[in-house]
Write a structure and sequence with these properties.
globular, 183 residues, Jelly Rolls
Length: 183
């Protein structure tokens, strides 16, 4: 279902990104629904809200933090041996603590063929869940571990969840597509 690598970033690289993203100065943007950027506004009635900082969308930089995030993505690309892939989207996501078990919507990041790397910035009790399809029961889960990453196929339905014991769960979502020779 997925491949996992622990301690994926070198210590200095990890500490640098951790200190930046974990800081109070890092800008986060509210989403009514953690899985969809264009979900209609719902007057805060939806418990699946989250925060994001998208640094790249459709291969275009969106943020002052794109360069360091892209460096991280390229390190992970090498570690997972995805040399024939290019990064098309980089999105930091943060869910905050809840006093109840809340799973966000099962989704795929794009209908196009792609791969997903999820990089966990911190330990958390908010697992990533995997589903057979968007309406099915859970078929697997991965508990976030600081400085670890998982790789899976983009057509795999998945969802984040809200932590209960930890104050926040921060994940970098990396979407990649295979590069083909058109000769």
């Amino acid at each position: 279902m997925y491949k996992k690598i622990r301690k994926i970033l070198p210590k200095k690289s990890f500490e640098k990104v951790y200190n930046e993203v974990w800081s109070f100065n890092f800008p986060w943007y509210y989403l009514c629904n953690s899985a969809y950027d264009n979900f209609p506004f719902d007057n805060n009635q939806n418990k699946t809200f989250s925060f994001h900082h998208t640094t790249m969308r459709d291969k275009d930089s969106n943020s002052w933090f794109n360069e360091p995030t892209l460096e991280i993505g390229n390190i992970m690309k090498k570690k997972f041996k995805l040399n024939n892939c290019e990064i098309i989207r980089l999105r930091w996501g943060m869910t905050t603590s809840s006093n109840e078990d809340i799973r966000n919507n099962a989704h795929i990041d794009s209908p196009d063929k792609h791969k997903v790397i999820l990089f966990y910035l911190n330990d958390s009790d908010g697992p990533t869940y995997f589903y057979k399809d968007e309406h099915d029961d859970v078929i697997g889960e991965n508990m976030p571990e600081k400085n670890s990453a998982i790789l899976f196929e983009g057509d795999q339905y998945h969802s984040s969840s809200r932590p209960i014991k930890y104050d926040r769960r921060i994940v970098l979502n990396i979407n990649l597509v295979e590069v083909t020779d058109d000769k």
